[in-house]
Design goal:
This protein is of the alpha/beta class. About 35% of the residues lie in helices and about 25% in strands.
């Protein structure tokens, strides 16, 4: 596929190098057209080296090829990132003062703008009018992410992560509606991996969780446009790029991090395998085998119920129930008292979370595997939803369900 990648003059231009890499590694032929202002942030040599194509922003270079007409005509996709307030205004009013704006006027294929600017600029009536004008003409304009901007301020206006822009661009070309990034501007906190409860300086109580499911959820949420915070306990896989990572080890540490993170989260997904119990006492020295052959006695105490605390915290705030979606995970086995779903339904009612993702676990099931099968239960009483396949595929289904639920109860303005 032939892609024109326009680069606007904003500090976020440096992140577009990663977007270019994603396009080229997927086998696409990319021509980069930076604005003159953007070259003050990232030089043309970078774009030429990463794209393998010559780079220009002037209509007077290679005039014999009529680039200001040819590039737009030949492009299967035009992506502009960062789309600054200035660029959006020029595109909306049909200006053609440089190679990029000429190309936008000549584009026959889909056009995707990924805005990035300060919050006040994004929310200004002039910018909003320009965005609506562009959307009305058929261009796709993503919602910017919310987060840290240039300087000390934060808010909507941050460039979505390169992986999210890439996913939106591919969806747009394929004619899918999810190019709109259903979680753009949302903040999602996800716990992943297994907690470890120390017995002494060298031993701990742990579990079989690899963290693969939590990491896959973080990737799916990031690709849906969310600002993702990953509370990472012990994991056998690295955290993904483009997410904030908070390292934890024990259930108590996870509790502290989760309660703090929930304060600004639209969604909290507790997919980590949290130890139900911890040793009442932790030895300062290694516990040794005694000469008299007596066995050590280890007393366990309950860990706090983090999921239940999150629900209670959410419900006790001024906004109350409905402003935040809380998703729990249940790793269940059947027994003489009931099957997996019976135990899960009881847990859903006991915890009070909005959605519960249920795994049937065993020695060779779920933990550490690349495939899984889940049932999503809703406290609202809607029909259980099944999802199976790779953990990437299942995570996409879970995030899609979360986006549906979230936008149904708390739509963006």
């Amino acid at each position: 596929m032939r892609i024109v990648l326009g680069v606007g003059g904003g500090i976020a231009a440096y992140k577009v190098a990663s977007l270019l890499r994603l396009f080229t590694e997927a086998g696409h032929n990319v021509t980069v057209i930076p604005t003159e202002a953007s070259t003050r942030f990232v030089g043309t040599a970078t774009w030429e080296a990463l794209s393998g194509n010559p780079v220009s922003n002037s209509v007077f270079d290679d005039v014999h090829q009529v680039n200001h007409v040819r590039l737009g005509h030949e492009a299967d996709l035009v992506v502009v990132a960062p789309a600054t307030a200035d660029l959006l205004a020029k595109a909306a009013t049909g200006q053609a003062g440089d190679l990029l704006t000429n190309t936008l006027l000549m584009a026959h294929g889909p056009v995707l703008f990924a805005p990035a600017m300060h919050t006040e600029m994004w929310q200004h009536a002039a910018t909003r009018a320009n965005v609506e004008t562009l959307r009305g003409r058929g261009a796709a304009v993503l919602e910017p992410a919310t987060g840290r901007l240039t300087g000390a301020d934060s808010g909507p206006g941050r460039l979505p992560e390169p992986e999210a822009i890439f996913a939106a661009a591919m969806a747009l070309v394929e004619g899918r509606q999810d190019f709109q990034l259903p979680l753009a501007g949302r903040t999602i906190t996800i716990s992943a991996g297994g907690t470890r409860e120390p017995l002494d300086p060298v031993r701990f109580l742990g579990n079989r969780s690899s963290g693969k499911q939590g990491v896959a959820l973080a990737v799916a949420a990031r690709n849906a446009g969310a600002n993702v915070r990953l509370l990472a306990a012990h994991m056998e896989v690295p955290p993904p790029a483009g997410v904030e990572v908070v390292q934890v080890e024990t259930a108590l540490q996870l509790r502290e991090a989760a309660l703090a993170a929930a304060a600004d989260s639209d969604v909290v997904i507790m997919s980590a395998a949290v130890a139900d119990f911890r040793p009442a006492e932790v030895s300062d020295t290694k516990i040794k085998k005694r000469d008299d052959r007596t066995d050590p006695v280890i007393t366990l105490v309950r860990n706090p119920d983090i999921l239940l605390e999150l629900v209670e915290l959410r419900n006790s705030t001024v906004r109350g129930e409905g402003h935040q979606l809380i998703v729990g995970f249940a790793a269940e086995t059947g027994d003489s008292d009931g099957d997996v779903l019976a135990h899960a339904e009881a847990k859903l009612q006991r915890k009070g979370c909005d959605l519960l993702v249920v795994n049937h676990v065993g020695t060779d099931k779920v933990f550490g595997q690349d495939t899984t099968s889940v049932v999503i239960l809703a406290r609202s009483g809607s029909e259980p939803q099944e999802a199976s396949g790779t953990k990437t595929e299942v995570s996409a289904a879970i995030i899609s369900r979360i986006a549906f639920e979230l936008n149904a109860v708390s739509p963006r303005a």
